[in-house]
Amino acid sequence: MKNYLQANRKLSFYILTFTVLVLAGCKKEALPDRSNISQIYGNKKLISPMGNGIPSYPLDWENISYMPAPPNTTPIPVPWQSGLGGRKIDDDIVFDYKKSDGWELVYNTFNTSSALNPAYFMLYNKYRGLLRTYFYFTTPSSYPSSNLAYLLNLRGPAAAGSPLLNFSGGDVVDVGINNVNVSQIQPYMVSGTGAWYASEFEMAYDSNINAINYQNLQLNWSINPNSISQITLNGKETGTISGTVEQKKEGTNFFTGIANNLIDGGLKIGSKKAADNLGFIKSQFIKDNILNAVNLASNGIGGIVKGFLSGIIGGGSSTSSAQQVNLKINSTIEITGQSVVQSQLFDNIFTLPGTLDNQGSVPFYPNYNSPMGVFYVSAKPVVKVKRTLYNINHPANIQGARTNFQFSLDESSYQLLFNPALLAEATISNVRKEVILTKIYYGDDIDRGSSSLSEENVAGVDMFSHLESLTLTGPRLSLALFPNLVVRITFDVIPNNGSGKVTIVKTFKATGKQI
Fold it and tell me: Which of 99, 309, 400, 492 is a Cys-bridge partner for 507, taking CB atoms 3.0 to 4.6 Å apart?
């Protein structure tokens, strides 16, 4: 009896293994039937008992005109093919795909044996920390949508402890509060015929990822087309969005659980054209400041950062004569109406590059298998604040003693953690740090004195900035009046292969410590 049971278990195992192999060669049914894709690539990852995954299908993406496909199937042109119609991809990323600029293949499902729908390939930029996926869908002509929402979330018991998504969804990072969900909304309708779509998210470096088993930290990427009723953003229909709106949001829909009809989102702006066409922003003042920030970055910042707190500048030199720009600028966006998700285009869990033992991932493990992200910080930076009360000759409308504040960054409070995989292929230079605080007093309430204080405006918010330290003089104030103390860190990534320099700008919330 015992031998009979053992024989049955072995037979069941072989049948299961054969079934998986057969499914891997089957053609995917047209949307919305996702049964085949979910069995191979879906939420329940198949773990090989022998620990033997295979690398993702190879793809020489920059040297082909059409994607790999089985014989006697309609050829699919690459997403950047000249004159390609029906493309649903932001202009700033269409022609940025060169290996020399740092792009590496992570996953690919296009192959000459089976045609899947949806099909996709995923690239990662090792110099900029960007993870991008290109999707190709063929859908029924009646497929309902007004825009697309891309949702990314970390899954597994190690998700809450990972900072991987902390650079997505906003322009200021609060170290220690990890973001496990982020969503984007794009203004594209789902095409009734086959079309390309794409989205990208910025990754932060997780210094512990090499010690995390791949089953304990995975990436869930899903796409929901929205059938929208009476949605407006700042008085404009959603179809007028130019540029992607991104927010830290948990849920099945970009609009899920929006409080008081307000979205505190990051505007992901990738070009001057996108900034020019921000039609859903009511305030011309805010639009002008965003455009000024984009212009400054587009013209090459030359060591000067002003008007934005999060950005990636440069790195696309081999694809365009224009400066590559990727800014994230927070703005409160007002919405009205309702949004309903009626269907789902894509939902898949990916094994993350750099995780422990991930070559056991079935059916594929990542083709690029080093940790992602350019850098992170080891702890929340501490800013030391020296407060001095004194009397001076001040304007008549200011009463009482004056207060002098001196701000300086405590360099011992944190460390910059650069990705060793990046350091093997690039040099970090020109590291600059600035203490910044939100301006809370106006007019004669602020006495600049002899300070080299610099003022700037970020999406309508006035701020004071100065390299490493600043002196601010005002009326009788306390440290409690400066809740928005942040540290902006800027540095250059210089690739060893001679490709274009990349300037990274990231801003972190700081803790004020009175001394």
Answer: 309
